[in-house]
Amino acid sequence: MSTSSKSVVITGVSTGVGQATAQALLQRGYRVFGSLRRPADAEALRGTLGPQFTPLLFDVTDAAAVAAAAAQVEAALAGQPLTALINNAGVAFGGPLQHQPIEVVRQHFEVNVVGLVQVTQAFLPLLGARPGFAGTPGRVINIGSVSGQVAAPFVGAYVGSKHALEGLSATWRRELQLFGVDVVLIGLGVTQTPIWGKGIDLDAYRDTPYFAPAQRFVQYVHKTIAQGLTPAFVAERLVGILEARRPKVRYALVPDLLRAWVVPRLLPARWLDRLLGRGIGLLPPRRPA
After folding, report:
1. pLDDT at residue 222 above 90?
2. In this predicted structure, what is the pLDDT of residue 195?
3. CB contact set of 186 (below 8 Å; sequence gap of 6+)
4. Cβ partners under 8 Å of residue 179, min gap 6
C-alpha cells in the first residue's frame, strides 16, 4: 500500500502533540482524520492543514458522537483499511488527592481511560479486528506518560489514569494478536504542550497544608516544560514508530532519560519518596527529641 493510500485517526488535534502529528503525517502523504470538540476549531484547522485532513467532531466521552465519527471514517475509506489510530486526547488537572473534587478525579478516568477505550472499540473493526478482514491490519498507538510508571505528587488522578493505560495497552496487545492488530504505548515525558498550562490551578487548595509544596511543584513543572520535548519532535518520533516494521511494545520519549526515567525506576521507592518530599517540602517536621 502506498503512503498516499494510508489513513490515520488522531484524537485531540486542536493543539500540541496531536496537531503536530497530524501535520507530520500530512507532509508524508497520509490522509488524516482528527478529532476536535468545537466546530470553530475544526473549520480553522481544516483551512490550515488542507484537503487531506478531515476534522471529526466528537468528545471521547460521547458514545453517540464517537460512533458517528467511526461511521464517517468508514464511509470515507470506502473499503480501505485504517492504517492507525493514535489515542492522544487527554486531560490533566493538578491538586492534592486528599482535597481534589471527586468529579475532577472522575473526569480524568472518563477521558483518559474510558473515553480512550470507547474510541478504540469504535475504530478497531476499521483497523482489521473483525472476522473476514482481508487487508493489512492496522496499529493502535496510545499516548501514555512517564507518570504511568513513575508517580509524581499533585497529579494523582492523571497518574492513576496513565497507570491504567499501561495495563489496558498490554491486555489489548495480547488480545489483538488474534487479528494481527498491534498496540504500542508511548511513555511521554515533559513536553511543551498546553495541557499543563490549562490544568494547574491551585487556588482551591490555598487553605490546605499542601498549598506551599504544591506551589513548589508547579514552579518545577514550569521550569521543566521550558526544557521539554517540542510537539514537532514528538510528532516525528510517532511517525517513525507508526512506520516501524517491528516496533517495541513501549517507548519512553523523555527529555532527560537518565534522571527522569531510568534512575527513578531503579531507586528504592522509599528513597524516591523522600527525595521528592525533601525537594518540594512534603516531609513532616521533625519532632523534638
Report:
1. no
2. 67
3. 141, 142, 143, 144, 238, 241, 250, 251, 253
4. 128, 129, 130, 133, 137
Question: What phi and psi values does residue 139 have, to the nearest 5 degrees?
Answer: -140, 140
Phi then psi dihedrals of residue 57, to 5 deg: -90, 100
Q: Which residues of 101-121 are buried (b: 16+ CB within 10 A; e: fewer)?
A: eeeebebbebbbbbbbebbbe
DSSP 8-state symbol, 122: H
Q: What is the CB-side half-sphere exposure of residue 117 using CA atoms within 13 A?
A: 14
pLDDT in tens, 133-146: 989 999 999 999 99
Answer CATH for 3-280 from 3.40.50.300, 3.30.1330.10, 3.40.50.720, 3.40.140.10: 3.40.50.720
Break the chain into its structural domains and give their ranges.
3-280
What was the pLDDT predicted at 1? 46
The CA-based angle 16-73-55, given to 5 degrees, is: 35
**What cell was used for 166?**
499501561
Catalytic residues: 158
Q: Where are the beta strands (DSSP E) in the chain?
A: 7-10, 31-36, 53-57, 84-87, 139-145, 182-188, 250-253
Whole-prediction pTM? 0.94
Three-class SS of residue 8?
A: strand
